[in-house]
Amino acid sequence: MHQRLRLLKHQMKMLRPTSAKPPLSGKKRDTIIMFPPSDQQSLELHMLTMIQDLAASLLMEFEKWVLRAESTGTILKTPLDSQSSLGSEEVIKAKKRRLGRAQKIIGDYCLLPGSPVDANAHYTTAIELARLTGDVFWHAGALEGSVCALVRRGYESLEDQVGTWESRV
């Protein structure tokens, strides 16, 4: 208990703005983000910048996932597929289904950061490819994703309409 209080006291000292802070070195410099003591508006600006950097990093990571999903030639197999090892006929089927499944996954990755227009374009392609190859479960998944993208897109246009209505009032 005494150790916890000492640790808490030390952490509280770290939060207090002082001019005599020891310089950071090594790993700590990369892991600690400090905001200079200032007014609320400046702190909000610093926080906004940090959040925008985080969002940009997430979007770049999603982009890597999309590019990886497009370029890999692996067969996307799920538990719904046959449990036996793939025979030559099943390999041909799986290769035909791979492109539709990849398009569905790319649509999912586009929907995650909030890009329903791009997501719906990929889902539309996935729907057509899954229908042509008879991949019924992935067809259903692509349809579900497309509906989510359309609802999200409709929600954005609804927000725009509400904003327009509020400006008239």
UniProtKB/TrEMBL annotation:
Listed PANTHER family: TRAFFICKING PROTEIN PARTICLE COMPLEX SUBUNIT 9
Species: Zea mays
Protein name as catalogued: Trs120/TRAPPC9 N-terminal domain-containing protein
Pfam families documented for this protein: TRAPPC9-Trs120 (PF08626)
Organism domain of life: Eukaryota
GO cellular component term, pick one: Golgi apparatus
Species lineage: Eukaryota, Viridiplantae, Streptophyta, Embryophyta, Tracheophyta
InterPro entries assigned to the protein according to its UniProt record, in alphabetical order: Trs120_TRAPPC9, Trs120_TRAPPC9_N
Annotated ranges, domain Trs120/TRAPPC9 N-terminal: 84-159
Chain segments annotated as coiled-coil in the UniProt record: none
